[in-house]
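Our collaborator T.R. sent over the components below with a one-line note: 'Predict the complex.' Nothing else. No constraints on interfaces, no templates requested, no preferences about which chain binds where. So this is a plain run: every listed entity goes in together, and whatever single assembly comes back becomes the starting point for the next discussion.
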Amino acid sequence: MSSVKKLASKMLEEKEFFAPGHRACGGCGEVIGLRLAFKEIGGNAIVVNATGCSEIIASQYPYTSWNIPWIHALFENTAAVASGIEAGLKIMEKKGISHSKGAKVVAVAGDGATSDIGLQALSGALERGHDFVYICLDNEAYMNTGIQRSSATPYGATTTTSPVGGKQKIGQVTWKKDMPSIAVAHNIPYVATACPSYPVDLVAKIKKAIEVKGPAYIHMFTACPTGWGCPSNMAVKLGRLAVQTGVFPLYEVENGAYTVNVKPAKLKPVAEYLKIQKRFRHLGDEEIKYIEQRLAEEYQKLLEKSEASAS
Amino acid sequence: MTKAENEITWKEINIGATVHEPGNASQYKTGDWRSNVPVVDFSKCIKCALCYIFCPEGCITKNDDGFFEIDMYYCKGCGICAEECPTDSIIMKEEKE
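Returned assembly:
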């Protein structure tokens, strides 16, 4: 309990590393996650930001919301730029010309930049073992360019490039790509899923990620009221429902050992989560049943993995 | 004071379009995006800080008495604070000029 208090005290610190005045839509879940994460990471960090919502809302020239050094990378090379900076910092420290001792390198990218376009660079950086934290802000589509589908878009969701109409009855036809598992497959020391609706859990995971030596990957589930078609006050509630229905289970993988952090005794019916979003409005009972079944199966698999690691 | 993007000329742009003033976005007013305004009733407030934690703008600050106040210069009126408030001390009202 005392550790919760300790974590919360940092969360309540007044210093903001992500300044207000950014141009995110009202009720953006991504910014809640960024604010909390950087309260924990602190000022001695260099941010590498891929193209995406998090970049355009914070860096409309001549303004910036970042109170710490920030560099804009492209969709495809965020992890490569981060590894370059990390290698540069290391050699500067070795030569004794470092201005920023112990600076952490944090890469921030959206779901498209992580699971579609930047996957190759990310895979390379994780494989080379650079000491950096990669935060994927997953809002389940390319929201910044106008809600196009990405491989992280969930089954059944309608987007502008997976629309519903005519013969197409379900929207997105493929299942969401399991990006955390891809990161786990690189045998990196720390992988975690997080959600700003569970702030203490999120902050604890960020803390572990920055303390660990070597690459750490955080997959953050952030609601997007604009793209998902829900009222602007729902971002936190949706995140909570996603965890409780099994849409996005919260777990961490430390050196291959799984731990499920939030274990609902019984998963809530997924309809509770789907019905409040416009992007799932067209789904019939049959599809909802299919989604619920598959989510339950995947959740069971996850629990088995965590039990196997515990024994 | 940073000039707005429509006032700045090409002669004033830094090489590489770098920004040298950290966090200068806080000069930009986002409060006029709002159509609903949160109204706080401090007599019901239990100082749990959930509104502070969940505010996407980061525009809620603690005052000297320990209550949380909302900076209307930035508040976009999304209503997350009112939704998450456990004692319903924040309610959203339509904003009138």
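Summary for T.R.: Chain A touches chain B at residues 11-12, 14, 16, 18-29, 31-32, 35-36, 58-68, 196, 199, 225, 231-237 (CB under 8 Å).
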